[in-house]
Amino acid sequence: MRTYEEHLAAVRAALPQPRVVSTPLSSAFGRRAAATYRAEHNLPPFDNSQMDGYALPTTHGGTFTVGRTIAAGDPPGDLTEGTALPIMTGAKVPEGTATIVPVEHCEPPHFPEEGATVTVPAAPEQFIRRAGSDVQAGTTLINEHALLDAPSIATLASQGLTEVLTFAPARILICTGGAEIGGAGEATIPDSNAPMLAALATQYGIEVAGFVRTNDDPSALRADLAEAVITHRPDVIVTSGGISHGKFEVIRQIFEEDGWFGHVAQQPGGPQGLSRLGEVPVVCFPGNPISTLVSFRLHLAPIIGHAPAPFRAHLTEPAEGLNNREQFRRGTISISDGIAQASFLGGTSSHLMSQAIGATALIRIPANTQLSAGDLVEVFPLS
Q1: What confidence tens digit (pLDDT) does each residue in 228-260 have?
Q2: Residue-range definition of the domain harbouring residue 157
Q3: Which of 41, 157, 269, 338 has its CA 20 to 30 A from that of 315?
Q4: 0.85 cut: is pTM over it?
């Protein structure tokens, strides 16, 4: 029986390395950077005004002649003694500017015509955004593997970049079903795992290449999968169900010869499988919905997706570990006075899908332990 870490390592070794692609910056949100990016120039690139006001050659105030207006994007020109230059927010500050005073603090409190006079109060150096005050040239902006969020996109754009190297999202082919799934008979149930897997893929930045429904005919299913691989060209096939020891475990029948099927010392999600169809790796999860969800989060999302890193939190109630198996229980995380607290949500059975609604984390309960409220445990965020 494998440990969680052993199976995670086995899955990681079996899956392909992500592809590096050049991506328009406008399409890079939510991807991970495939290179480290450093600033080519300062940000801001020049001293600029933080306010609509007057650029002044002194901090002492007084009455000044109003010069020409400096709009954002205009060359600033020269600032001479006795002159106050109207300057707009974002405009480049002229050489010799000692301070900027907002127009509403002056008399008159609006911009008069060029050549008029304005009385300005004394003010210290203020409202000048200095070149490089946000980023200095040579500073690392984005590290390789960093998730590109909106501020990252803006920062890269501010350096004049229009394309960046990213890791292409992994593409998965989802295979679910069985004779008891999706039929019209009184002993059949709807397929909840396929839409759940698709939702999980989207949540973790993984593309769904296509879907295949299983049936209980191994030859027909293998042919369907082979055709889907040619059509959709997935990086990974992900299956749910059909891997235990029953009479109709069709996934195991197809893939066991070329792979590994066994148990991981965890609950839910103990039965697991790992194989190949030609050159395409196949990751096989158990069919109970919660087992599928937990398996995806623990064994697939951290490798080909954007799963948040686990951290430690304090239990809010006691917990007893199982004999020789770890538990990954659904729960919620709250922060109180800067301390993370983990609370259980719903029951432990692997079919209780509705009781997982609202869960924000998986709480790891080690085997053969008796935990008290306040004890530290590892938690795996679900989003």
Answers
A1: 999 999 999 999 988 876 656 889 999 999 999
A2: 21-40+139-167
A3: 269
A4: no
